[in-house]
Write a structure and sequence with these properties.
Strand content: 15-25%
Number of helices: 17
Structural class: alpha+beta
Radius of gyration: 23 Å
Number of strands: 15
Strand order of the largest sheet: 2-1-3-4-6-5
Largest sheet: 6 strands, mixed
Amino acid sequence: MAGAFISHGWLAAVIPAHARRFRVHDAALRYTLERAGAELAADDADVEIAPLDEVAGVAPTVIVPLNANIADSRARVRQVVRRVAASAEVRIRAAHACAALGRRGYSHVHAIPWDRDQPIHLGDHVPSAHRFAERFPRRVLIVGSRGAPERTVLQQVLHAAGDGAAAALHGLRPIVASGTLVVLTSAHVVRIAMGPAAGLVEEQGEALRNLAAAAPPDVVASRVPRLLATEREGLARWSLEERVRGDHPPTSLGGALAADCLDFLVALYQARPARGVPPAAHAARQGEIVATYAPASGSAVRELAQQIDEEVGGLRTGFWHGDFWMNNLLVDGHRLVGVIDWAQGGAHGLPLLDLLNLELIDAIDPSVYDWGPAIAEYLLPRAVRGPTRRHLEYLRRIGLDLSAREHRSLVAAYWLERVSHHLRVFVDRGRDPLWLHRNVTQVVPALARASLRLPRHRRAPAERAVRMTST
């Protein structure tokens, strides 16, 4: 899929369902809308999206996005103070913008606070804040219309999905997440995306269909949402799946939940794909993606990717989730009852990667800028010391015996999988020099040193063949 912008999931919440012609000033929004199939026009537009001081005021609907000065690049440094100040700043600007659009003849004007990975505050209803950050959103959409507001893409999709009245949005919590709009209804989950992010909706649907076709055991099947539909509505792609009941874990990984996660990941990896074959030289292709965006580290990344393919490219692959961590788990008490958000999942994942992701985030919970260093400073030293008891149990149950070098190579493969996914899927990452420096430039040398520290463990072809087919 073409790269998407992480923040553009809000589009479906406010754009009229009938809109096809857009007057847009921001280059990133133009990119997203054009790839959704919209027509970009200077005149006779259905919707205008522009900063307040550039609004022409001729379209029947106008949207003014307001973003506070958000210092995401310095994770957790005075984070609380900065968020509160940014939220106050953008609310003051929103009040000014609402008044200005009213003077321009827009009879219906309202402000919609939102932030990434948070509910959008639609209508007069403000969803209850589950987290501190939700009380202080740092972005606001000002939406003005000259007549009565029209049905939005979100409302049209909910109507087409047949799940609840489209007007009853006050009971819902649409969340902007990774370029999509995720809506939890009473019984279902609706995902909506416009432009390149529609690929995430399609990949989620493909992963769920392939997993269902593999007929996994109940320890997996009972915890995975059932896909009901994937459709297109105007400029948007949407999917409908059954909602898995449960709550997000309130505490860190441990006890019965840790055991349930291990049971789930073992059974998931052992599920057999219904079709398809593992891709050859997978790490090499991922290395090319990373090298393209980080040319200064290009030769080192390519060499590391080649080493990963040589060491673990022959291991039997299995189903994996791709983003297995606490926020994608649902529990009842301390028992695992659901695993959600399968857009990164697939039938040909390497062993241990989901478990590495779960353990890293549970222990460190790194920001997007500290995630790469956390792999080098936390996961890699643990791998150098040798497999943990949990890793040994996982490997025993899937019938795999790893050399010390292969164990370290799987940590490098985990890093490469994650960084290449972010660069492939999200335009923002490849344009952020700090993200590239922290997650690529600073990390590659440590991974390369660890991979080269031990002599390569060679196996005879017959032994490798057994390892590829063992369960």
